[in-house]
Design goal:
Layout (H helix, E strand, L loop, with lengths): L1 H37 L4 H24 L6 H24 L1 H6 L4 H28 L5
Helix pairs in contact: 1-2, 1-5, 2-3, 3-5
């Protein structure tokens, strides 16, 4: 029973830290994406550029702050592989929400923000559970 409580506490603590890091790194991603769109960059390329910088920050912060793990080449490669797969899903959702949101009357920054939140939310949950279960799983 005590082990179960500790595991839940650890899960809650890690999820809280992961979300805090995620808010910060999503802000990096979002800001760069919106700035680039604002200066005329292609919507998809702007999103990719923002994602790269947000992902680098997320790996560095989550390794230490969320999971208490040392930085390593193998963990970085595993996170990169995971984030590349969720990037594909995230970019698909970013693209797929464009026309339906326009049909609902959303455009510009509002449409892009709704698309971002949907895509980021799915990616964040997927990334947390995959990292916790496979990449940064506790020893023992």
């Amino acid at each position: 029973m005590a082990g179960s409580t500790a595991a839940r506490s650890s899960l809650k603590s890690q999820l809280t830290r992961f979300v805090a890091v995620g808010v910060l790194t999503a802000a990096i991603d979002y800001s760069l994406t919106m700035i680039l769109i604002g200066v005329g960059a292609n919507r998809q390329l702007a999103k990719a550029f923002g994602w790269v910088f947000g992902t680098i920050a997320a790996y560095l912060l989550n390794s230490k702050f969320t999971f208490g793990a040392a930085l390593s080449g193998s963990k970085a490669a595993a996170v990169l592989t995971l984030y590349a797969s969720t990037f594909a899903v995230q970019n698909f959702l970013w693209w797929a929400t464009d026309v339906p949101l326009q049909a609902l009357g959303f455009d510009g920054a509002v449409k892009n923000t709704i698309s971002f939140v949907i895509a980021q939310g799915v990616a964040t949950l997927t990334n947390f559970f995959m990292q916790r279960l496979l990449i940064f799983r506790p020893k023992g």
